[in-house]
Amino acid sequence: MARGRGGEISEEDKKRKVSGKSFKEALKIFRFILPYKSWFIIGLVFLLLSSVTSMAFPLLAGKLIDAATGKGPYTIGQLAITLLAILFVQGGFSFMRITLFANVSERAMRDIRLHAYSRMISLPMRFFEQRRVGELISRLTSDVSQLQDVLSFTLAEFLRQLITLVVGIAFVLYLSTQLTLFMLAVFPVLVVAALLFGRFIRKLSKKAQDELAAANVVVEETLQNVQIVKAFTNESFEVNRYGTALEKVIGNALKAAKYRGAFVSFIIFALFGGIVAVLWKGSVLIQQNALTPGELTSFIMVTAFIGGAIGGMGDLYAQLQKTIGASERVREIMEEESEVSLNSETKPIRIYGEVAFDNVTFSYPTRPDVEVLKGVSFQVEAGQKIALVGYSGAGKSTIVQLLMRYYDLSGGNVRVDGKDVRTYDLRQLRHHIGIVPQEVILFGGTIRENIAYGKPDATDAQIREAARKANALEFILSFPEGFDTIVGERGVKLSGGQRQRIAIARAILKDPAILILDEATSSLDAESEKQVQDALDELMKGRTTIIIAHRLATIRKVDFIYVISEGRILESGTHEQLADLENGLYQHLLKLQFEIE
């Protein structure tokens, strides 16, 4: 679903009409109940039985009144016991219906969430660049919950009220055709009002739901960047921003509630006004001996059931409309094209680590008019170590992203071991590439779990050995819980150097043929940098290594250095060659860094 900034409904959304086609499309999401169709069908049977037995209550209540006046073949005691028995049976039917529908809805929603998340996590990077995290989380939570409400309650309630309408009208026709025709005079008014109010309330409810998603985005962003918030002492600013978003939620929700209240008030007035009219007409028929007091009582009770069903139709209609919108948002994710298949098994391949870029050009999908790389060509032999240097924005990180196939090339070729990277199975290609980023983000579990992320089936001995090689074993064992120490959200309980060494241990465990070091020591103090650098030296042994570096002192020992400027390779050579190059960019960077240090 197209959305405006902040979660507001776009013009396209406002113009979208709910039609038979959109309803049919929305029903596709309910294919997830097919594995549980037997439970669902049995639930529908119990729903039918429950609805029919509820309609027996007014019939027997009327006969009870007739029995009290000496009319009818049954005694008051017999009818009272029958009524209690019906209530007990109806309670059993309702229990079975609710339990069965809950089983279907919970399991189907689990399958929908898992399928949507699996598809989401396998989508290419461009998908995530165009969407905010809070919006995607909202689709997995509130939108799927909306679908669950329909399966577990709204659908059952809609069918129950439909059955009540059909059976109720047949029942009152049987009791008195004259009184039924009189009662049905108000029917068209109620139906038209329900449709008009329902459509309007649906739009308001949908807007409130989108505003809530926008408020969730504020919380998501704030909590993800809480250190920045506190560093700039912007707690009050963020609270105000969230408060403003919540005010929009409240404004839309209260407006929707006001109209729902007006609708309910109208229905109540029309319903009880109709009952008064039916009472008057029924009293006339009793005087004419065309109706008994018990039949009039039954008629009025059934009329109340019918009126309640009509009154609930508007709100249920609005709920169904919201569901169509929610299903569209969830289906949008499910229908996106994945870059990898999570269900297919791929044959393991061996990669030695030879990398070649041949006249590569590239523009990001979000900025197609800006050429980031302009004919980049270089080659790295297996086991060789190279460095990419240059100003920020020169294209260094883009080169690495293209090697990992986060994006497809605009032109040229990238080859690994002589083969175009596009011919490799994407998961197998990335399996042989390891990365240690500048800003290490750890998962909120234990140190053991974060290291094992490089190889989920690793043994404790392998995890320990990886930590040792990464110079992380000493500080890990200094914690009371050792490898079972919780690192906190995004690893906040560890220092920068400790997080880097955990990331290195993770890469060692992965044992990649190609290693990428993206500014791995740039944000560390001198002591931490030495420990991390020693760990990196261990990690780089025997691997093709591509280093992105600003601190040029860390790349003096590499085999080759490429100086990138404005998407082109401006200079290339060893450290000594480039340092001696008069008026060269590398020499300039060296002098600049020496002055700063």
Characterization of the model:
By secondary structure, the protein is α/β, with parallel strands linked by helices. It has 20 helices and ten strands. A hairpin with a 2-residue loop joins strand 9 and strand 10. It folds into two domains: 20-334, Up-down Bundle (ABC transporter transmembrane region fold); 353-432 and 548-597, 3-Layer(aba) Sandwich (Rossmann fold), CATH 3.40.50.300. Helices cover 62% and strands 9% of the residues. The chain starts with 10 loop residues before the first helix and ends with a helix. It has helices spanning 11-15, 20-27, 37-68, 76-121, 125-129, 133-175, 177-183, 187-224, 226-231, 235-287, 293-334, 396-403, 426-431, 447-452, 460-469, 473-478, 496-510, 526-540, 575-579, 585-596; strands at 355-362, 373-380, 385-389, 411-416, 419-420, 433-436, 514-518, 544-548, 560-565, 568-573.
Key terms:
ABC transporter transmembrane region fold; 9% strand; 4-stranded antiparallel β-sheet; single chain; 6-stranded mixed β-sheet; 20 helices; 2 domains; disordered N terminus; alpha/beta; 597 residues; Rossmann fold
CATH fold type of the largest domain = ABC transporter transmembrane region fold
Question: The biggest beta sheet, please?
Answer: 6 strands, mixed
The termini sit apart by: 51 Å
CATH class category of the largest domain: Mainly Alpha
Structural class: alpha/beta
The proportion of residues forming helix, as a percent range, comes to 55-70%
Q: Widest sheet: strand order?
A: 6-7-8-3-9-10
> How many DSSP E strands?
10
How many domains in all? 2
Q: What do we call the CATH homologous superfamily of the largest domain?
A: ABC transporter type 1, transmembrane domain
Strand content: 5-15%
Radius of gyration: 35 Å
SSE string: HHHHHHHHHHHEEEHEEHEHHHHEHEEEHH
Shape: elongated
Shape-level CATH architecture of the largest domain = Up-down Bundle
Total number of helical segments? 20
The assembly state of the depicted protein chains is single chain
Name the poorly predicted regions: 1-18
